[in-house]
Each structure stands twice: as C-alpha cells, then as structure tokens.
Amino acid sequence: MLDTDASLPAVDNTAASPALLRQRGSNHVGLRQFNERVVLQALRTHGSLAKAEMARVTGLTAQTIGLITARLDEDQLLRREAPVRGRVGQPSVPIGLNPDGAFAIGIKIGRRSADWLLVDFTGHVRERIVLDYAFPDIDVLLPAIRTHLNQLLDGLGPLRSRVVGVGVAAPFQLGGWHRMLGLTEAQSEAWNNIDLAEQVQQMTELPVSFAKDTSAACVAELLQGRGRDIPSFLYLFMDTFVGGGLVINSHLHRGLHGNAGAVASLPLSPAQPGQAPAQLISQASLWELEQRFREHGLDPMAAYDKRVLQAPWLEHSRGWIARAAAGLAHCIVSATAFLDLDAVVVDGAAAPELLQALCESARHALADYNWEGLHQPPRLELGTMGSDARALGGALLPLHACFAPDTDIFLKA
C-alpha cells in the first residue's frame, strides 16, 4: 500500500461539511484519496475497527490512519461506536461506516417485474418498491421508473444530497426469446432497440451505470455474498429465464460485449444439418416450470414461492427439478472444461427450498459424467442474495465506483 498521507498537511476540521460528497479518485495524483478508499474497503470487509486494527489490516501507518479518519469524519462517512474497555491502556474506540454516509439506487428491469432498491453506505436495503407485470410495456414502465426513482429520492429528505448514483440492471436483450413468452415481433424489437441506461439518465442528474441483470446479481454475490470467499466461480441465476455471470480471480468478467456467462444460450447437444439444438433456457428456466403448473390448472406463480414443494405442485416440480438439474450439470461440465473453476454458485428468484433441491439433483447428475482429463467437479454453493440480487448489484455499481479502491472489480473487460 502506498503510504503517502503522513507528509500531507492536516485537514481543516473547522470547515463546514460539504453539501455533496467529494469525488474520490485513484490516479497517480490521488494517492491520498486511494488510501481513503482502502480504509473504507477494510471497514466494509471487516466491520468496525479500532485505528490500530485499521493500520494492521491496511498496512498504513498509525499517523496516516489518523489523517484519513479525520477526513472521512469530515465527510460524515464514519461513525464511532462505544469504547471497548477492560484492556491495558486507554480504551479503544471502534470506527465503522456511517450508514447515512452515502446512498445509491438500484433499478432492476425484468421480463416479469421491476424492482427499485434504496441502498445505504453499508450495503443494506432501506426501501424497496416492486412492480409486477406479464411483460413490461415501454409506455407504462418508463414513466413508472421516473416516478419510483423520484419517490425514493424524495423520501430521503435532507439526505438526498448523499446519493452517489443509480445502477440499472436488465437482461442483455429484454425482448429475447419473445416467442416463448407469446410476444409479438414488434414488442420484442421495441425493447431490443432501446437504451435503458440513456432513458434513465434523462430522468436524473445523478450518474447512471448499467449492467446485464445477471451480471449485476453476480456483483452482489461477489461483493456481499459467497464471492468474498471464492476467487473464481460460475454464477447461475434461476429466474423466468436462467442466466449467469462469471467471476475470475475475484473480478467480474464481463466479456467483450458485456455478455459473459450467457448460459441461457448454451446448446444442449451438437447441431444437426438444418436443425439447431435446444438451448439451456428451454430446460432450466422457471418459465418451463410455470407452464407445467399452468397445464394442470395450478397457479404458475407457485414456481417462485414455498408452494413449489407442496402438494399439488410438488409432483410437477420433481419432474422439472430432474430435467433442469441435468441441463445445469451439462452447463457446469462444459464451463469447468474451459475455466477450471473453484465453484458454481446457484441463486435465483425462486424459493430457497427449490434452489436447494435443484443443487442436490445437479450434484447427482454431475456424477454421471466422465471427468477424465478434468481436475474434479466444482463444488456447488447456494447464493445468499435471492431475488434482490439484480437490483442490489445495480445499486452497488455506483457505490463501488465512488468508494472502492479496486474500481474495475466489475468494469474490467
């Protein structure tokens, strides 16, 4: 760590707190700001720390830590907790992130619902708005995005000035596979030709960032879930349509076009002349489970809650689990052959009980493959973010861009 703050002049703490948060750069003239980000990241990772612990974790000197915490205090990004007594010497005072220090808004636009999340500086969700629909209508959804975005901003009152940005998460092609959903070509093209990030940017003066919805979900898992312990993993997100993301060496790999981890399009068999094989989307998506329920006169939305493993849905769910697990196992073996992965993390908008059953079935399916030439099957882990993952990941994009030392953790292409 570059420890340059010791030679810098002390901060004038008599100045009034700024109305807006200062930008924190990380270029060669911004080593002081970079070290601030290192301290903030240490607090985000380890929780509240005394100054001596901060110095040990970050490798910065005690003098530098003192200067940095003074500046972060000035920006209202830290809070001091009750002194820890009972030890030799002066009691230590743990310092943590101030939840009101900064905010971001994540917006997830999906094929069946939209979500707006207000996330605080610690990554916790403060407010949530959900809008369900059969399929989004542009003329209805765009005004709704503006309305709910402003609703969350207005609800912050004086803290509105602490919002650092908006992150938008949506499918790479929202109008894709429109025939499966029973949509017209016109409905599909309308969404495929729209720039969602630009549309949202026209609604606000805040900076707007965009990521594929399952990549955003992968960011949430990477920064706040299992990704903190697993350096490289394939991420599978079970939703209306199955999707994925890819983490390599603790960085989200977006790919040339931002579409890495597009597991929905994975062919399930070799192509025959004039006949394209089925894709994973047709075998491992909750949409297919919905159709099973609908064909038997059952509520298809049970695919997303605890009813999915209860009678009378259970007998139909079992067949879907076996079929979906076989498709996922094929995907996992293929990915392992190319990427030599540590693990596969499975999450989704489904009930945790269904995801657990799906993982167990996929483990059994993996045992049927020939692993000669490969190290071993990667371990399957359940994700921790659930349905919020996509919107939460969207909100983490601007927070991480403003306050993390490794700003390319999700931007690296």
UniProtKB/TrEMBL annotation:
Q: What is this protein's record name?
A: ROK family protein
- Tell me which domain of life the UniProt entry assigns to the organism this sequence originates from: Bacteria
InterPro entries linked: ATPase_NBD, ROK, WH-like_DNA-bd_sf, WH_DNA-bd_sf
